[in-house]
Amino acid sequence: MGSTDTLKLYSRILTKAKELGASLVGIANVEDLKKAPSYTVTPMMPAYNGVGANKERIDNRKSGEVNWPQGAKSVIVIAYAHPENKPELDYWYGSIDPTGNKKLIKVVQGLIEWLQNDHGIKAFHLPYHVERGGIYLKDAAVFAGMGCIGKNNLLVTPEFGPRIRLRGLTLEIDLPSTGPTTFDPCAYCDEICNRSCPQDSFKEQVYTPGEFGRKELPGRSGDYDRLRCNIQMKIDEDTAVEQNVEDIEKAVRVVKYCRRCEFSCPVGKV
């Protein structure tokens, strides 16, 4: 595909994703992602089986190792904004997906149909969890030019800060990454996000460059402790109460996971 054709396809993909409801969209090349921090470091870390990890792995890969779909050459990353004034987008209603995630899935499914029908391009909707065949979406979003990994270990975007959610789909065509960008508001911040954590998940360094052979680590410097963060998520699950929710026949437990590190970040706030 020539450079002119590539630019035209980029433009059409970005425009269509926005038309379908995406807040942000970008493209990452698979070969770039294979060298990204999460893809090289996480398989060397202790296995994580806490909240958000599906314990039933699809094969015998090492914990944290990505299983790329056959023929995957590029990834389209879709973001949907979850602002502080719309917290219900992130609520779990029993085992039912949050509203924001449903909106993301609808965008991805619409984009897959459009790519196949209008351009003859096959696309695959990635599962969310790496254990079930997903990928590390935050790193993908960085290579897609959507933002940077912040000191809160979240993707931080210029438009919405860290208050977004991500999904991805792979393409069987080789497109270059649309990023990364030089955007980095965390370089000289005073780490409000770290201090807001109720479990002190950023209290001390738990990973070092010497362990993994690179300086890009969780929390940027290795001071994000996922196990501490998981304590709060378990508390949020255990203290959830049943509520009557519109469009759900019976009362369900509504889980409202902690988002203090997101809400404390000043980036992207109006």
Protein architecture, described:
It is a single chain. With 270 residues, the chain is of the alpha+beta class. The chain has one domain (3-263). It has helices spanning 3-20, 30-33, 37-41, 99-119, 137-143, 192-196, 209-212, 226-238, 260-263; strands at residues 24-29, 74-81, 92-93, 123-125, 148-149, 155-156, 164-171, 241-243, 252-255. The strands form three sheets. Strands 1-2-7-4 form a four-stranded antiparallel beta sheet, with helices on both faces. α1 (3-20) runs antiparallel to α4 (99-119). It starts with a helix and ends in a 7-residue tail after the last helix. 34% of the residues are buried. The mean pLDDT is 93.
Shape: globular
Count helical runs.
9
**What's the number of structural domains?**
1
Encode the helix/strand succession as letters.
Answer: HEHHEEHEHEEEHHHEEH
Q: Which structural category do the helix and sheet elements fall into?
A: alpha+beta
Please state roughly what percent of the residues sit in beta strands, choosing from under 5%, 5-15%, 15-25%, 25-35%, 35-45% or over 45%. Answer: 5-15%
Largest sheet: 4 strands, antiparallel
The overall average pLDDT, rounded, is 93
Q: Specify Rg, calculated over alpha carbons.
A: 19 Å
Q: Give the helix level as a range of percent.
A: 25-40%
Euclidean distance between termini CA atoms: 40 Å
Q: Strands of the biggest beta sheet: in what spatial order?
A: 1-2-7-4
